[in-house]
Design brief:
This protein is 26% helix and 15% strand. The chain contains 16 helices and 17 strands. An eight-stranded parallel β-barrel has the order 1-2-3-4-5-6-7-8. A hairpin with a 5-residue loop joins strand 14 and strand 15. Helix 7 runs parallel beside helix 8 and helix 13 packs parallel to helix 15. It starts with 6 loop residues before the first helix and ends with a strand.
């Protein structure tokens, strides 16, 4: 939930937040935390990161915008279940649901009840049905978990506000003794911060996590959700996340903890892995691809940065991240302007981004609608991020079974008959949707992309822009060569960095012949990509 404009604040909070097991005294403006103790070991061996997420394709869903089963204009869980075949065909393996809790807002991050489903989205039974349907397809499902704050409409907060005698008095971070002012997420009064130094708060949050892991309450955690995307991981102290991991892994050792720590420095991200998270979103890589959050078309994906930044970043991550860590790469999410906006709706660069993601090792994430090129930039008040989270375009006319209509302002980015809908692109082999399906199918079907061995390839090039990596697995190799430049580039790939001398591009079926002595010379069009495999591997 952390907007990029809050990076300096979040970095400061992450750097300064102490990790303490003690209960914080009654809050006052002058309270100071005691020194940070060393982290304690868990009482069970840590099972490590779940292997099912090692190479997963994750898909972020804003339920309100995705699909509507009851024709009220608002997306719901039943609507999402009805679209699972679409997601399976796309190549999605894991779903991440943005908050589905009762909430007074449309974004849902100000939670009123951590163990209930928002009535607009359906019921607990609807969620159980969705989870069962997801599992039946061999897919997994994650829920957003919001441990740093709750809604000011939550009954515990309402009882404690202006009431120092409340049993929930020490559950929040007050800034005066009368408990009339308090710390809130990003300074918002709508989202009061929780006091994670209070053991009652910690147990309250752990109980909520256990609830979703065991949806029917029968003690069988295999029928619940498969883990959590943890919001705003830079605020709660380390000791809380140690406790959260211990509780989650005791309930289901195969559950995933995916953290949102919006920090652009891999050294800062690295400290959230040990004993806390299995996976973290790779905001460092996102920053290289997208560039300055205040501008468009200034990142590598738009052809305005040097690919050496990627090489340096991946080297740093390999050095800093512990073995088994799962960095999740992505092009956009619900807090960013959409990829189409970042690249000026250039179809070549949208495809380039898709191919780059699909070629990477580790898990990758798609944001709903990315696969059809939906646009969206942050708007003005009062809707702001709703422009980035607009209804999924299923139909050319923006009308039909399952289409959501809750947010259709005149100044929205997506309109009827604009070529950006599932209906308009499904039958077109040249569409962005067809390309996403193709690159994700290659990723899924070719052993090289399932392996763990990979390396960045050194290229001889006529200018800046080209970048390449080689993937290896189960006796297959694929060399993926990209040109991020806006001009054509000639590159030479050494024979030792190729899967063979007779090659085929897995995306276009073009054939190439390399020389054992001179390698392969490629003429790369602007914003282009080749997946080179030995010709017998096609």
């Amino acid at each position: 939930m952390s907007p990029r404009s809050l990076l300096p604040l979040l970095i400061l909070l992450a750097a300064c937040a102490p990790a303490l097991p003690e209960v914080r005294p009654a809050a006052s403006p002058s309270w100071t935390a005691p020194p940070t103790p060393s982290a304690t070991a868990t009482d069970i061996p840590d099972p490590g990161s779940p292997s099912w997420f090692d190479r997963a394709v994750l898909y972020e869903v804003y339920v309100r915008s995705f699909a509507d089963a009851n024709a009220d204009g608002v997306g719901d869980l039943a609507g999402l279940e009805a679209r699972l075949d679409y997601l399976e065909d796309l190549g999605v393996e894991v779903l991440w649901l943005m908050p589905i809790y009762p909430s007074p807002s449309v974004h849902g991050y100000d939670v009123m009840d951590l163990t209930a489903v928002h009535p607009e989205y359906g019921s607990l039974a609807d969620l159980q049905s969705l989870v069962a349907a997801v599992h039946a397809k061999g897919m997994r499902i994650l829920m957003d978990f919001v441990p740093s704050h709750i809604s000011d409409e939550h009954p515990f907060f309402k009882d404690a506000l202006e009431n120092p005698a409340s049993p929930y008095s020490d559950w929040f971070v007050w800034t005066n003794d009368a408990h009339t002012t308090y710390a809130g997420f990003a300074g918002s009064r709508d989202m009061p911060r929780l006091n994670h130094y209070n053991p009652e708060v910690v147990e309250f949050l752990l109980d909520a996590a256990r609830f979703w892991l065991d949806l029917d309450g029968d003690g069988d955690f295999g029928d619940g959700i498969d883990g959590f995307r943890v919001d705003n991981a830079t605020f709660p102290p380390t000791e809380f996340f140690l406790a959260l991991r211990r509780a989650v892994k005791q309930a289901n050792p195969d559950a995933l903890l995916l953290g949102e720590a919006w920090l652009p420095d891999p050294a800062d991200l690295a400290r959230y892995f040990p004993g806390q998270f299995d996976a973290l979103f790779d905001f460092s890589a996102y920053q290289v691809l997208a560039g300055d959050p205040s501008f468009h078309a200034d990142g590598l994906l738009a052809g305005r940065a040097h690919p050496a930044l990627l090489t340096q970043l991946f080297k740093e991550e390999a050095r800093l991240f512990p073995r088994g860590a799962q960095p999740v790469r992505f092009l956009n999410n619900h807090d960013t302007d959409r990829t189409a906006a970042e690249v000026g709706a250039d179809p070549l660069r949208e495809r380039l981004g898709a191919a780059w993601l699909a070629a990477l090792p580790g898990p990758v994430m798609l944001y709903y609608g990315e696969e059809i090129g939906m646009a969206g930039t942050k708007g003005g008040p009062p809707d702001y991020d709703s422009y980035r989270r607009a209804p999924m375009d299923w139909y050319a006319a923006e009308q039909g079974v399952g289409q959501t209509t809750w947010f259709v302002p005149a100044d929205r980015s997506n309109h009827a008959d604009d070529g950006i809908s599932v209906e308009e692109q499904s039958g077109d082999p040249r569409s962005l949707l067809a390309f996403y399906r193709a690159v994700l199918r290659v990723r899924r079907q070719h052993p090289a992309f399932q392996g763990t061995e990979w390396a960045i390839v050194r290229l001889e090039t006529s200018g800046a822009g080209p970048w390449a990596l080689v993937r290896r697995g189960n006796d297959q190799a694929v060399t993926a060569v990209f040109n991020f430049a806006s001009e054509a580039r000639a590159v030479i790939v050494a024979a030792g960095d190729l899967p063979g001398l007779s090659l085929v591009d897995l995306l276009s079926n073009r054939r190439f012949e390399a020389s054992a002595g001179e390698g392969l010379t490629l003429e790369l069009p602007p914003a282009s990509v080749f997946y080179l495999a030995a010709s017998h591997a096609n």
